[in-house]
């Protein structure tokens, strides 16, 4: 009888026909091939996703639901008022202050100026990375014809009253896709930039002077200190320890390459997996690596490369590809995120996970972590385009910030957080770059 009733209902349903049941069915009894719209109290037929003219595919329905959620959260944020009672009362006044500051951050759009009027606001931001003093941010922007455009934004104009920044770019470097970038301190703090990217075939590693973006005379432009062809590069890191001076590392497909940019000497360490994330310790010349296999291991770059895996020191394991690692200031703990959305804090002395930060969303993207120990905050942008902020101390999710733009694969925000955006006298807050726009969330 149930089969007859179902067949009878489907008989009267054309491609876009609807009918009204007396009440919404439980999820377990949904009709195969049909979608129930709770707002309209109707059933709609689902057609294959390759039918571009069909407005009712699974992907379009999921996208619509995500967009409704994003708009609802944006509206709630606009109505949010200062509250002295957080959802879960913290154990001390210090934590109370920080939680209130996080929840009261409001979004304001930043005006971007450039000496070249054709630069600002014409290309989508892909990556932003701040220097150590947070006086400048290096930007990687996608360009329409393929490749990337690089630029530097000066944050000195980011005052309390004015939200204006100056952007300088160099159109010479536009032919490569960039996977990873980090600031490098060679001649002085944050004097250069390490770029790891994909050209046609093979990839390319470059050390680029930051002064290239401030010179107005083309004849005064310094050249790249080093640039060489490599296999596909996934990550990079600069070493600040004097025992491995002037060295940077490149995470490649199944190997790690450590290069001294002054002498040209290179060390190669073979791995069993692609190296997607890297960071040097500062107290010792030790390099930490996160791999696609889920393994995290360290290398003491003072030792000569030996065959086999005996040169691996600390070894930790995630259940999925490790996309980002961050060594804490005391260098006893390491934060790591993976493609399953897991964020874990590891004790390097015991090789055990001591905390997990839940709520992050990732399935396949290389997404960075941002840790600010001074404020006790962990920040990560998920593949769903939501920016989440956790308390470092108790791993509690403090706030989820929806993107100002509709969620999509090419609109994942890139963020920077600092207590001093613009230098020692700068303003505290979160910078968010998404699409062609730059936003400031004031943290005070």
From TrEMBL:
Q: Which domain of life is it from?
A: Eukaryota
InterPro entries hit by this protein: CUL4-DDB1_E3_ligase_receptor, WD40/YVTN_repeat-like_dom_sf, WD40_repeat_dom_sf, WD40_rpt
Gene3D superfamilies the record matches: YVTN repeat-like/Quinoprotein amine dehydrogenase
- UniProt KW keywords: Repeat, WD repeat
Q: Which GO terms describe its cellular component?
A: Cul4-RING E3 ubiquitin ligase complex
- WD repeat segments: 318-356
Q: Which residues form a coiled coil?
A: none
Q: What is this protein called?
A: DCAF4 factor
């Amino acid at each position: 009888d149930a089969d007859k009733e179902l067949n009878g209902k489907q008989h009267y349903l054309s491609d876009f026909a609807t009918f009204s049941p007396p009440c919404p069915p439980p999820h377990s009894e949904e009709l195969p091939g049909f979608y129930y719209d709770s707002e309209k109290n109707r059933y709609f037929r689902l057609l294959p996703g390759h039918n571009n003219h069909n407005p009712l595919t699974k992907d379009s329905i999921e996208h619509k639901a995500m967009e409704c959620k994003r708009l609802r959260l944006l509206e709630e944020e606009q109505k949010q008022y200062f509250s002295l009672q957080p959802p879960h009362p913290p154990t001390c006044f210090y934590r109370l202050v920080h939680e209130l500051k996080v929840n009261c951050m409001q979004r304001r759009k930043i005006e971007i100026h450039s000496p070249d009027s054709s630069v600002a606001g014409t290309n989508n931001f892909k990556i932003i990375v701040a220097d150590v003093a947070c006086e400048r941010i290096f930007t990687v922007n996608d360009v329409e014809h393929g490749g990337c455009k690089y630029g530097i934004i000066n944050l000195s104009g980011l005052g309390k009253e004015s939200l204006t920044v100056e952007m300088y770019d160099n159109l010479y470097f536009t032919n490569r896709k960039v996977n990873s970038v980090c600031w490098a301190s060679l001649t002085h703090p944050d004097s250069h930039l390490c770029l790891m990217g994909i050209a046609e075939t093979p990839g390319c590693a470059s050390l680029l002077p930051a002064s290239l973006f401030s010179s107005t005379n083309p004849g005064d432009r310094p050249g790249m200190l080093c640039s060489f062809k490599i296999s596909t590069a996934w990550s990079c890191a600069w070493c600040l320890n004097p025992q491995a001076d002037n060295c940077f590392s490149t995470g490649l497909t199944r190997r790690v390459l450590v290069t001294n940019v002054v002498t040209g000497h290179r060390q190669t360490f073979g791995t069993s997996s692609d190296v997607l994330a890297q960071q040097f310790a500062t107290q010792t010349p030790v390099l930490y690596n996160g791999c696609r296999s889920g393994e995290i291991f360290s290398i003491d770059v003072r030792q000569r490369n030996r065959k086999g895996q005996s040169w691996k020191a600390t070894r930790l394991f995630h259940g999925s590809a490790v996309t980002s690692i961050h060594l804490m200031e005391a260098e006893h703990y390491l934060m790591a995120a993976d493609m399953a959305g897991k964020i874990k804090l590891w004790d390097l002395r015991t090789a055990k996970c001591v905390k997990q930060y839940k709520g992050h969303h990732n399935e396949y993207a290389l997404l960075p972590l941002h840790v600010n120990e001074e404020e006790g905050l962990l920040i990560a942008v998920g593949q769903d385009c939501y920016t989440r902020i956790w308390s470092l101390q108790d791993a509690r999710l403090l706030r989820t910030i929806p993107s100002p733009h509709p969620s999509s694969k090419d609109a994942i925000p890139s963020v920077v957080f600092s207590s001093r955006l613009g230098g020692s006298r700068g303003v505290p807050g979160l910078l968010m770059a998404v699409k062609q726009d730059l936003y400031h969330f004031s943290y005070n």
